[in-house]
Amino acid sequence: MVIQWVAAVDDLPTVSDTKLNFLKAYKRPIPSIYNTVLQELIMMRIEKAIFQAYINALKEDPKQYSLCAALNINKRSVDRDLDVYRNLLSKLVQAKELLKEYVDREKKKVVEKSRISEG
């Protein structure tokens, strides 16, 4: 069983292959805000596969590593909270990008005003 799982992990496309396949399927430009989210989604998939392969190689039950089971809490509630957290993080990244764009625009305005006053 461990060998079958390792083979399945080996069959996972690499991060770069996954991103290349995505870019082939989605031909429009991707704003940098979404590029970060895309990268995180790809990495989460790879990390999960690595964790599963490691636990199976140890011949242990992955359920014993479940924090939800250990704390006797509902996994669905935890997943919902994590989704809210991810959404907030995404909005923070977006806000940071907008702030950077604003600051860059204001710097250009200052430079332009100084050129006009000098000339």
Automatic annotation (TrEMBL):
This protein's UniProt keywords: Coiled coil
GO cellular component, as recorded: chloroplast thylakoid
Coiled-coil stretches noted in the UniProt entry, renumbered to this chain: none
Any one of the GO BP annotations: thylakoid membrane organization
Residues spanning the signal sequence: none
InterPro entries: Thf1 (IPR017499)
Name the record gives this protein: Uncharacterized protein
